[in-house]
Amino acid sequence: MAKNKYVKPTLLFKYGGNAMTDPELKLGILTNICSLKEDGYNVVIVHGGGPFIKLTLQQAGIESEFIDGQRKTTREAMEYVEMALKGKVNGNLVSLINSLGYKAVGLSGKDGQTVIAGKRLHKRVVNGDTEIVDLGQVGDVEEVDPGFINLLLENDFIPVITCIASDKNGDDYNINGDMFAGHIAGAVSAQQYVVLTDVDGLLLDKDTPESMIASVSISELEVLKKQGVIQGGMIPKIESCEIALKNGAESARIINGTVPGQIKDLFANRVVGTTIKK
Questions:
Q1: Is 247 helix (H, G, I), strand (E, B) or coil?
Q2: Which of 16, 81, 176, 235 has the fewest CB atoms within 10 Å, counting from its CB?
Q3: 70-72 and 65-67: which strand pairing?
Q4: Does residue 252 contact residue 245 with C-beta atoms inside 8 Å?
Q5: CA angle 182, 256, 17 (to 5 degrees)
Q6: Taking the CA atoms of the chain, what radius of gyration do you get in angstroms?
Q7: What is the separation of C-alpha 275 from the centre of its chain, rounded to a whole number of angstroms?
Q8: What is the Cα–Cα distance from 72 to 85, expressed in whole angstroms?
Q9: Where are the domains of the chain?
């Protein structure tokens, strides 16, 4: 796998969720992320857009079916998922970044064959038996070629990437944004992979903000999962950090994306969010 060979270190931000629906907050986040270029960093943004997918499918009259929290995606629905992610969310982010005076390029995993997808077959246990559930056009990352991303970075662009990719036969798949971002972060050898969420980091007690864990190693994560510390929406975010670290990223961090100032604090020797280390 090709590695990032630039003098400038690369920062990759996973952006998504409700922090995308507030225009003022969105502008604050993008302003803080992009300003890191002035500090000598390359910047890559990977995004999802669940709220926008939901709205687009509703407008198209397509009902969403969820299986164990995962959206089943028919071929018909996949067209609207791509419309929402690439056409609406990605295009809007690119326009905003350009308006700030930077050069953004919007793409998905399909562009330049950056990501090759494989169909996800979901396993679940029913009455003690394991069964395979077909989620339709829901996929996993099988391969990443960072060449196109690296080319954009070399030429001072900010790649803005959404979590859609095709398999080797040209079939399109929607991929979990956290998993997608983790694989990209590893492939570009990100100095930091930063996951923006709606809490300050990983909490020992989810109801006690003061219980944030400042630092944790990959080897400690399994215990925290068994203890129920890592649960719900935090599970894919932690797993994406593991993927990033195991595939080439130097460090990973989970921070509060609803507080844009935390983005700059990352590089001001302040304790921000939860750092996951190898």
A1: coil
A2: 235
A3: antiparallel
A4: yes
A5: 65
A6: 18
A7: 16
A8: 16
A9: 10-277
Q: Which residue in 183, 196, 235 sits closest to 16, CA to CA?
A: 196
Element (H or E) spanning 226, and its range? helix 218-226
Q: In whole angstroms, give the CA distance from residue 241 to residue 195.
A: 8
User: Which whole-number Å values give the CA distances from 165 to 115, 137, 170, 229, in the listed order?
Assistant: 6, 10, 9, 32
Could you tell me which residues are beta bridge partners of residue 66? Answer: 71
Helices (H) and strands (E) in the chain, counts: 9, 14
- What is the pLDDT, as a whole number, of residue 4? 45
Higher pLDDT, 3 or 80: 80
Superfamily of domain 10-277: Acetylglutamate kinase-like (3.40.1160.10)
Asked whether the predicted pLDDT for residue 226 surpasses 90, the reply is no
- Spatial separation of the C-alpha atoms in residues 67 and 74, rounded to whole Å: 13
Residue identified by tokens 């460090």 is 251
- For residues 274 and 201, the answer to whether their CB atoms sit within 8 Å is yes
What is the pLDDT at residue 6? 45
Instruction: Output 235 or 180, whichever has higher pLDDT.
Output: 180
> Distance between CA 202 and CA 234 in Å, rounded?
8
Proportion of the chain above pLDDT 90, given as a percent: 67
Please write the tens of the pLDDT for every residue from 100-110.
999 999 999 99
Q: Which position has the token pair 């709205």?
A: 55
pLDDT band at 7; cut points 50, 70, 90: low
